[in-house]
Amino acid sequence: MGAGTEPDGSSRSDEEWERFLRESAAGAAEAPKEPSARAREVTKRLRAEPGRGVEGWRSYTPARPRRRTGWYVVGLLASLVLLVVALAPGRIVDLFADDDSPPLAAETARPTQAPPAEEAQRPTVEEPFRGSPAARWASGAAGITVPKAEAVGWMSAGEVEQALARSRDFLVASGLDRRVLRGEHPAAAIALINPHQKDVQDLLKTAFRTPTEQNDPLLLFSRFQPSDTHLVGDVVKTRGRLTYREGERGALQVTADVTFVYPVIRADAGDDEIVRTIVRRELVLSWDNPDKVITAPGTFSVVSYKYDVTNGGCGAPTGYFTPPFGTDRRADESGTEIDPYDRSAPVAQGASAGEKCGRATRS
Questions:
Q1: What is the pLDDT of residues 224-236, one digit of tens each?
Q2: Between the CA of residue 326 and those of 148, 323, 340, 342, what are the distances in Å?
Q3: Domain that holds residue 186
Q4: How far is it, in rounded angstroms, from Cα 279 to Cα 217?
């Protein structure tokens, strides 16, 4: 290859070749330099290794600059959240409210204190128990704890188990049956009451026709007037338990202490105000020995009944709970203050008379 010939066979002019020699001799920065013998040897050895690519002996790939866009995005989102909190704090509380809180364990004994206060939140048709301790309670019959059955008095363990189940059936039929809650006659519940118990049968005969303080169906049954009030949704929250012991003449005496929470709304269309009527009942039922007491098979006698009610209406008995709405609600708040979710004390002797109506400290 001649001095003026390129590797591809083309020719350089004499002027270009002379300029190249001068620049090489002067050590120009852009003039190519011959690699050393050691560098050529290392390059040759690396090329001989299988599967390994070799960069130029003085090649260099600059590192890519790190992008910091992630931090900018995080900062922007944090700023937006702070802005929303400042403008609409209530919305943030609603958004992050723990609607999936685990349900409370079943109540097996009387609690020692009232449940803690909840974040004040307005109930809605979709969430009628929102902002209430009842939001974590079980629904319907599942909230009524039935203890393990053992033999008592004249009954075997199996008979006690059956009596406990029927006692809970009465609570379901009297306080959870949708037809009864809509004001229909509680025939299934009444069928479980001893037909030979004269005082209770007299109450039942008159209470539904002409209710009075002494003969009021609300003493045993939960009822709403459908022309005035509608239940919201299909769920009634409950919390309570059954206990039992041996009663008089070897009878099985069952005590029920249960709180029912009924979310209701005006029957008039277009009104979205929700009121929770809260009823706590304590019933003592006696499953008597038929050899000692006149009774019908599969029925119990009512030993006593007490109840507390808030947001259930005051004044003359009507045979129905009459939840107060709007201005009526403020006028109704004149009775003794009651925390309807506090189950740590025994049930007071409730009644439907106006002077004994309880005013809920929360609902």
A1: 999 999 999 999 9
A2: 45, 10, 20, 25
A3: 139-360
A4: 14
